[in-house]
């Protein structure tokens, strides 16, 4: 299990980064207030 955790975590980070990157390219950047509320 411990051997698979890093690869799964890395894959999740790559997928999340791809989704965020695609979303930023497809949608205009939100105002700073929206970014703070999202977090």
From TrEMBL:
Q: Name one GO biological process term.
A: amino acid transmembrane transport
GO CC annotation terms, alphabetical? plasma membrane
User: Could you tell me the superkingdom of the organism this chain comes from?
Assistant: Bacteria
Predominantly, its location class is membrane
Q: Where in the cell is it found?
A: Cell inner membrane
Pfam name, any one: Trp_Tyr_perm
In terms of InterPro entries, this protein maps to:
Amino_acid_transport_2 (IPR018227)
Annotated membrane topology: Multi-pass membrane protein
- Segments crossing the lipid bilayer: 7-26
Q: Which UniProt keywords apply?
A: Cell inner membrane, Cell membrane, Membrane, Transmembrane, Transmembrane helix, Transport
Indicate whether Cell division appears among the record's keywords.
Answer: no
Q: What protein name is recorded for this chain?
A: TnaB
């Amino acid at each position: 299990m411990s051997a698979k955790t890093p690869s799964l975590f890395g894959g999740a980070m790559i997928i999340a980064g791809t989704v965020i990157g695609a979303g930023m390219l497809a949608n205009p950047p939100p105002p700073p207030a929206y970014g703070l509320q999202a977090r």
